DNA sequence: TAGATTGTTAATCGATTAACAATC
DNA sequence: TAGATTGTTAATCGATTAACAATC
């Protein structure tokens, strides 16, 4: 039912942060980097960073560190960010717009090829350069465009219906920003972002540290 | 340095999803709920849900299930969502606007008391009912308003400076949506949301399932 | 040489899963 | 009674952490 164990989840979640920092460091002409430096930046222990890098298969030089560009490419390849992924975003509200504006996604191999919304005010306008189309034209378009990823930013009531439509068009992977757990067949994968999950963790930290 | 272990992190991340679903079920007058039903909805094993509920201290009835309203209150109390938290959001771009529009946050005990931005076009307008103020007025206002949480939605280049200012005003907890790891003193907690972390996981699922 | 770092193996810790009696 | 469910203890699995030799 779209729930498939991914090993090393915590490590995978850390990868983009390494990646982003490493790109900044490379731009600053720092050609070698140690786990000590990255760990300090991220508030981790160096051994964690070392073990994470081991997963990507990259090799460092004892006493020296890792070559920045080798690390970047190792992480990119490990995450599959060297492959181009066509994404179709549905729901161009504030959150959808925010995602459309993230320049970094193209660095991560994801390209917005289609954007749909139901609001007549938005249809045929451009958001961050992306043309917003009428969601009623979605099915015929997607059968041609064949996106790899569906990004769900519609209100909760519409989420499941939109996903069902997209699955019918052959979409097999979803990034779900809605409040609901989507019900999908076993050959379809879903990554759900739970914004309230972060708030829950922050709330626990507030408690633990007697901030509130 | 603002990095403090929180136990049961995976369970805590699942709590808001239980919570949200339970509220919907209560509105549908489903007064009793079993872990089987919730697990199926979320794509988990029932034992996981049972263990999670155990953390909150709630008790179910063998053979029957849990009382919906008891579960809701148990989770709310466990997460500290019964305490009111004043939040100050800085950076009213698309992402900031999306957060300001999340009605659910008040259910979770978080109230937006202040919103700041640097863009003259936005200053003195209202976004989802919240007045946007000039970020240059932030310090004097915060010394009075004393928010519990700072929500960072500003561009990366400004994030650290904004946080430093807020810490000087006594803010000790941050929800960081910027691309950077904020450097903060040990008595300050940070919860960082890494949107690209979700994409990394989705990318790995694509790989594993030969979708791309 | 001394200090910093990686690579690797082993130890520990915590989260998930299994098993099953007790209850409705 | 049979079936569904919780509560609880134990087993397993995976992630983090420790330790230390090897390298620069």
From TrEMBL, chains A, B:
It is found in: Cytoplasm. This is Redox-sensing transcriptional repressor Rex. InterPro entries: CoA-bd, NAD(P)-bd_dom_sf, Rex_DNA-bd_C_dom, Tscrpt_rep_Rex, WH-like_DNA-bd_sf, WH_DNA-bd_sf. Modulates transcription in response to changes in cellular NADH/NAD(+) redox state. One of its GO terms (molecular function) is DNA-binding transcription factor activity. One of its GO terms (biological process) is response to redox state. Keywords: Cytoplasm, DNA-binding, NAD, Repressor, Transcription, Transcription regulation. NAD(+) binds at residues 91-96. It holds the Pfam family Put_DNA-bind_N. The keyword Transcription regulation applies. It comes from Oligosphaera ethanolica.
